[in-house]
Design brief:
Two copies of one chain form a homodimer. Chain A is α/β, with parallel strands linked by helices. Chain A has eleven helices and eleven strands. The first copy, chain A, folds into three domains: 2-29, no CATH class; 44-145 and 279-308, Response regulator (Rossmann fold, 3-Layer(aba) Sandwich), CATH 3.40.50.2300; 147-278 and 312-317, Rossmann fold (3-Layer(aba) Sandwich). Chain A has helices spanning 2-6, 13-26, 32-39, 64-79, 115-122, 147-160, 176-191, 210-218, 234-246, 264-268, 280-295, and strands at residues 44-49, 83-87, 104-108, 127-130, 142-143, 166-170, 197-200, 228-231, 256-259, 274-277, 310-312. In chain A, α9 (234-246) links the parallel β8 (228-231) and β9 (256-259). β2 of chain A pairs antiparallel with β2 of chain B. Chain A binds a DNA duplex through residues 1-4, 6, 8-12, 15, 30-40.
DNA sequence: CTGAAAGCGCTTACAG
DNA sequence: CTGAAAGCGCTTACAG
C-alpha cells in the first residue's frame, strides 16, 4: 500500500516496516513517470540555448557564456528542487517526449519570430526568454538584456579612452543582442554625424574572421578607418586583435579592441582584451527563479531586470 | 481518436483533417508524461557530474572539462533523439521526480563507494561511469580513463625534457583520476628509488593553492626539491606557476609545470602551460552512445576504450 | 487502520 | 474505418 511507503495516511509502524522490507527485497522502485502523471509535473525545467544552432561546435573556447549559463542554471534548478534539461530546439521533428515534458522553459537568445516561442505560447507552456524576440518585443515574458545600454557603455568607455571612430562587429544570428547593439551604434554614430561602421560575421567563424574584419574596415578611405573595434563576441575580438597585430598595428595605441562577451581567453591573451561581463550566472539564476514560479502556476509580471553588465578594463583599450 | 493524430491506424484523410483542426482549435497537446508511461521511457538521459559537489562555483574558468563534457553530452544526446539532464546527485533527499526518471545515467568521476552507483545498481537503473569507482573496480560498466597511463605519459615527457625530480599535485576528491594518478607516480618514483613527492589539495581551491604547494615542496632538504610539478588540474597549475614566478623561479628553466587537464587559460597564460587534452567531447559522445544503448535495453560489454589523451606541449616544459 | 476503486492522460489491441 | 475498453504505474479520496 502506498500509504505505508510515502508516509501519507496513518499506518501502523509495524505495517510500514513490513511493507518497506518487501519493497526493498523485490527491488521495488516507484515510477517517477507514473508519479508525474498525477499533477502532470515532473519537476523538470528546460534550458533552450538557441544559438547552439549556429555554433559549429560546443567547444567553449572563447564562448563560455552559454556553458556558464547552462552550468549555473543546472545548479540553480537543483537548489529549487528541479532538474534542468539542455536542449536546442523542441520544435524539431522527432524530438523525444522529454523535450516537451518540462514544466517550464527558459529560452536564451531567441531569434526573430522564433518558432520555439511560437510553439510554446500556442501550447500554453510557460516560458521565460533571456533577451527578447526582436520581432515581437514585449509580447512574451522576457529578461531584458539591455544590449543597447551595454553598447552605449562600451562606446562611452572607448570614447573616453580616446577613440574617435568606433566600428562594431556583430554576429549574424538575428537575436536581440546582435540587433539591439547594431541599433545602438547606428544611433550613436548618427548623433555624431558619422557613418556607422558595422559588420556582421557568423558567430561560428570565431577567431577566423580577423582578416575579413580588417579588410572591411581598413581598405577604403583612410579617414573612415576606425581607431577602435568593438566585437560582440570574445572570439571575434581575439581574431581581430591577432589580425591587427599581424598587420603591424599596435594595440591599443593604433587600434583599440574590445569584446561584448569574453572568456578567460581575453584575460590571458597578449594583450589582454577589455570585455563586458554579462553576468551569465546571475542571469541564469534569475531565469531559473522565474521558471520555477511559472512551473508552479504563479503569475510573473515584467519588466524583469537583471544585474547590469560590468566593464572589465584591460590592456586592449588602455591608452 | 488517437489514431488520427499519430497516424497509426487506417483512418480516412477527411477524419484526420477534421480531428487535427479541432485539436489545433482547442490547443490540444498530448502529455509527454502520459505517453512516456506506456513504455516507461521518456527519452531522457542524465549526466551526473559528481565533482560538482566539490566545486564551490560553477565558474568554468580553468575547469572547463565538465562544462565541455556537459555541452558535448547534451548535443550528442539530441542527435540520438534523447534529452540530457544535468544533475549532481540523485540520491539526495528531496530530488524532483525527474532526477530519477532518466532512461539511463552517465556518472562522471564517481567517488570511492559512490552512493549514486550503489543506488543506481540496486534499482537496476542502467548507467555507465566515466572513470571507475576506485573501491569497486570492474564492478560496474565504466569507460576507462587510463589515468595511470596518462600520468606515465606526462612523466615521460617531463623526464625527456630534463626533469629529474617530479612532484604530483592532485585534488582531494577520492575518484579514479586522483587516486590512479597517485598510484602511478608512486610506482614510477619507487622504480627509480625516489621518495614520491605527492600533495593533495582541494579542487575548489583552484589557483589559490600555489603558495601552499610551493611551501610543501621547497621548504625541506634542497636535494628533495622538485624540478617539475605536475598538477592534475589546470587551475592548480596556474596557481603553482604564479607562485613559483613570484618566488623568482624561472619557468621552465628552474621549474617545469604541467597540468593534467587544462583550459584556454593555460594556453594563453605567460608562460603557456603544457597540458593533457583529455578529449572530453569524445568521451562524452562515447558515453552518450553507450547510455542510449542501455536505455534501449541493449547489453553493453566492457572494456570500454576511449580515445587516448594527447599532450599539448607548451612553454612551461620546453627547456 | 487497511483494502478496493477511481483517476491521472495517453496508447494500443479489440470489437463493432 | 471508428468507437469503447483496457492498461501503463502510480496517488488519493473513499468505503469497510
Amino acid at each position: 500500500m502506498s500509504h505505508a511507503l510515502n508516509g501519507k495516511g496513518i499506518v501502523r509502524q509495524e505495517t510500514i516496516d513490513r511493507i518497506e522490507q518487501i519493497a526493498a527485497e523485490v527491488g521495488y522502485r516507484p515510477s517517477p513517470i507514473a508519479r508525474g502523471l498525477q499533477n502532470s509535473k515532473l519537476g523538470l525545467l528546460a534550458l533552450v540555448i538557441r544559438p547552439f544552432h549556429s555554433l559549429d561546435t560546443f567547444l567553449p573556447e572563447g564562448v563560455d557564456y552559454f556553458l556558464r549559463t547552462a552550468g549555473a542554471a543546472s545548479l540553480a534548478a537543483m537548489e529549487h528542487g528541479y532538474s534542468m534539461m539542455l536542449i536546442d530546439d523542441p520544435t524539431k521533428p522527432g524530438v523525444p517526449f522529454s523535450a516537451l515534458a518540462a514544466d517550464a522553459y527558459i529560452v536564451t537568445e531567441p531569434f526573430e519570430n522564433d518558432p520555439v516561442l511560437t510553439m510554446l505560447s500556442e501550447q500554453r507552456i510557460p516560458f521565460v526568454c533571456v533577451g527578447e524576440d526582436p520581432a515581437r518585443r514585449g509580447q512574451f515574458l522576457a529578461i531584458e538584456e539591455h544590449a543597447d545600454t551595454q553598447t552605449e557603455m562600451m562606446l562611452a568607455h572607448l570614447s573616453d579612452a580616446g577613440a574617435n571612430r568606433i566600428a562594431l562587429v556583430t554576429g549574424t544570428d538575428r537575436n536581440d543582442w546582435n540587433l539591439a547593439s547594431q541599433t545602438a551604434i547606428v544611433r550613436w554614430s548618427e548623433s555624431r554625424n558619422l557613418r556607422p561602421l558595422v559588420m556582421s560575421v557568423p558567430e561560428a567563424e570565431g577567431e577566423r574572421v580577423g582578416d575579413a574584419v580588417m579588410d572591411e574596415f581598413f581598405s577604403g578611405d583612410p579617414a573612415e578607418h576606425p581607431d577602435a573595434i568593438y566585437c560582440l563576441t570574445g572570439r571575434h575580438a581575439a581574431g581581430v586583435t591577432a589580425a591587427a597585430l599581424r598587420r603591424g598595428l599596435r594595440i591599443p595605441q593604433d587600434l583599440m579592441v574590445a569584446a561584448g562577451s569574453g572568456s578567460l581567453q581575453n584575460q590571458t591573451s597578449t594583450p589582454t582584451v577589455t570585455t563586458l561581463d554579462l553576468k551569465p550566472e546571475a542571469i541564469a539564476q534569475f531565469a531559473v527563479e522565474i521558471a520555477v514560479k511559472l512551473a508552479e502556476g504563479q503569475r510573473v509580471k515584467g519588466p524583469l531586470v537583471t544585474p547590469r553588465a560590468t566593464l572589465n578594463l584591460r590592456q586592449s583599450t588602455a591608452r
